[in-house]
Each structure stands twice: as C-alpha cells, then as structure tokens.
Design goal:
- The protein has 152 residues and is of the alpha+beta class.
- Helices cover 38% and strands 26% of the residues.
- The chain has a 5-stranded antiparallel β-sheet with strand order 1-2-3-4-5.
- A hairpin with a 5-residue loop joins strand 2 and strand 3.
- The longest helix has 57 residues.
- It is rod-shaped.
Length: 152
C-alpha cells in the first residue's frame, strides 16, 4: 500500500493573494496617474495657445481701431508704412506678455486702400487684410469696410 499524500498547510496563501491584489492595484493606479498627468500637461499647452490666439486677435482689433481713428492714412504722415510693416503703439494685453501689431499698405495710394495688419503674441501670428475707404470730408478717420483674418 502506498502512503496517503502529505497534506501541506495553507498558511501563507492569503498573503500571496493579498500581494497579488496590491500589485495589480498599484500598476493600475500608476497607469491612470500617468494618463492624468499627460492630460494636464496637454491642457496647459492648449490653454497657452488659446491665450496667444485671443491676444493676437485682440491686437488685430486694436490695429483696426487705430486705422479708423487715423485721419491721415494714405497721406504723408500715415499710420502704416507702404512697403515694410510698421509697428503700431504697444498693445497692453492683460493675458499675453506683449502683443506686437504691425501694418503696411499693400495697395492703393488713394481710396480704397488695402492694408495688412499682423499681430504677434507669444509666437502666434494673426493676419488681417483690411480695405479702407477715405471719408469725403477727410476730417474723421477712414471707414473700414472689409476685414478678412487668418492665423498661423
């Protein structure tokens, strides 16, 4: 006759299962934490980009307002240069560090004129083509009749 099998105690098996469960939970949470950290970084980058876009767009609006307020556009003391972009007065944007707005007259010595505005904020550039008509009495600023914007 053969001897009956030796039954070993099950002491310690619960410890092995507990260690396995703890390891599984630790791996799962570290993966979730890595995903959340990546999402947070991406969200920060997108927020900075949105702020730069908004600041550049506000700079374009500021440039259009300056064009409309300048009665001398197209004359000797005009606001915008004829060939190279001329920086306008600084745009004090509360979001971006500094917004640089430049403009130049692309075509037209008299009404209507095509003016190009460029606004740059934190490495983001927005451009607007503006068609400007002189008022009949030349006492007020010119009329802006069309604005087309694009960003890069």
């Amino acid at each position: 006759m053969s001897e009956p099998p030796v039954v070993r105690g099950e002491r310690g098996s619960t410890l092995i299962m507990a260690l396995g469960a703890v390891t599984f939970i630790a791996i799962t949470f570290s993966a979730i934490l890595g995903y959340q950290t990546t999402g947070l970084r991406a969200q920060t980058v997108l927020a900075d980009k949105r702020d730069a876009e908004a600041a550049a767009d506000a700079g374009l609006d500021f440039g259009v307002a300056q064009l409309q307020a300048d009665p001398s556009i197209g004359t000797t003391g005009m606001l915008c240069g004829t060939t190279t972009p001329v920086p306008l007065e600084p745009w004090p944007d509360p979001v971006a560090d500094d917004v640089v707005v430049r403009c130049h007259t692309e075509s037209g010595a008299s009404s209507p004129r095509d003016v190009v505005l460029e606004a740059e904020a934190d490495g983001f550039t927005a451009t607007a083509y503006v068609t400007v008509y002189d008022p009949p009495d030349r006492t007020a600023g010119p009329s802006v009749v069309s604005i087309s914007k694009w960003e890069r």
